[in-house]
Amino acid sequence: MEITGLPAPVFCGVDWAEDHHDVALVRTDGKQVAKLRISDDKAGFAQLTALLSEHGDSQQCPIPVAIETSRGLLVACLRATGRPVFAINPLAVARYRDRHSVARKKSDAIDAATLANILRVDMAEHRPLPKDSELAQAIAVLARAQQDAVWARTQSHNKLRSQLREFYPSILVAFADKRDGVSSREARTILAAAPTPTAASKLTRRQLQALLKRAGRIRGIPAEADRLHEILRRDYLHQLPEVEHALGQQAAALVRQLETACANAEDLEAATVTAFDQHRDAQVIASFPGLGRLAGARVLAEIGDDRSRFANASSIKAYAGSAPVTRSSGKSCVVMSRKVKNQRLAAVGYVWAFAALTASPAARAHYDRRREAGDRHVAAQRHLFNRFMGMLFHCLQNDQGYDETRAFPNQPSKEIVAEAA
Fold it and tell me: What are the tens digits of pLDDT across the range 120-176?
């Protein structure tokens, strides 16, 4: 992102802490002209803005600010003022600190001055936080929270399944072929009613039918109840009665955790999709094959809606981690997958590419060509995701939807039609 306006005569560094922040101002000649410790409240922010105003801060030439985090009230308020805010990686700050002292001394005030000097020396090498719209920032909060909730749900499911293997094999057998396993609504309902295999074996067909109805099942209830009744009454190995009872109490607690995790994921998904539908970029993003509303919201959350954030398609590909990185030294040259990337965007990228294999014949043909060229499955998916990111950058810049014939021009349209048939 390019910074407009005249070069700033002063640079600000803020060393962030939980209850206070250290501020340092450095001139272009490297001399520190001010330092201050402010509280993490409204009064502290007023002190900071007053200090910046004393040293030439204005709307035409705002003083840029470097800080080690991209979150929090302080960062949000600084971004609201319209000034460029740079989130510097703490590891980079530690490496810059060694340029000024070999004694490895460290303090909050020194770190604040180091952050200011980073902007003074290498501001062009760092990217400021994007100027995303309020709705885009809200979508980012919801999409990331929903993704965290999904990960929490998976973790809760794995904990419960691991614990059930110790004493409750019948419930695992009953839902082994189900899509969500023991995290399905039906399994959770039965586990809540019968947390031990002994209690489950005593459930009648009518009770099982009632539990299935409570779980939301509509069709095939008698047949499913008969199947579960037969499985739960089979002869299995058992723990000692007292031990089984204790394990059942633990399982009930894990089921309640899983219920909460599932409810959180579902509620946040609904809120995320609702907010995504209101955004001006939703129609363009959702036009891509394999990219549903939830996945599209995750993509929008990570790339934002600031059109000047990425200079070209290569930048957004590198940010997503889909573009390879080359390590060359002398006669050695190695091309490998990128490790430093936006992990959330990279995670949704594989889901996007995988879903596109069935939603787009041209995408499937491109994947097959990469496989025939020697790529493994993950590498071929990553290459397809890389193509999609370049197309998405072009479509957003020109405010146009996805067009398969233009996206994959090397594949004849009749070939696409034949593959679709």
Answer: 999 988 889 999 999 999 999 999 999 999 999 999 999 999 999 999 999 999 999
Q: Which residues pair with 33 in a beta bridge?
A: none
Does pLDDT of 311 surpass 70? yes
Per-residue pLDDT for 4 more than 80?
Answer: no
Output the CA torsion sign for 114, 120, 126, 132.
Answer: positive
Asked: is 10-129 a CATH 2.60.120.10 domain? The reply is: no
Distance CA 172, CA 76 (A): 47
Sign, CA torsion 293/294/297/298: negative
Q: How far apart are the C-alpha atoms of 93 and 90, rounded to whole Å?
A: 5
How far, in Å, are 77, 117, 133, 309, 392 from residue 3 at the CA level?
19, 17, 18, 11, 24
Q: What is the pTM of this model?
A: 0.85
Q: How far is CA 273 from CA 97, 138, 284, in A?
A: 44, 12, 15
- Torsion, CA 193, CA 196, CA 199, CA 205, rounded to 10: 60
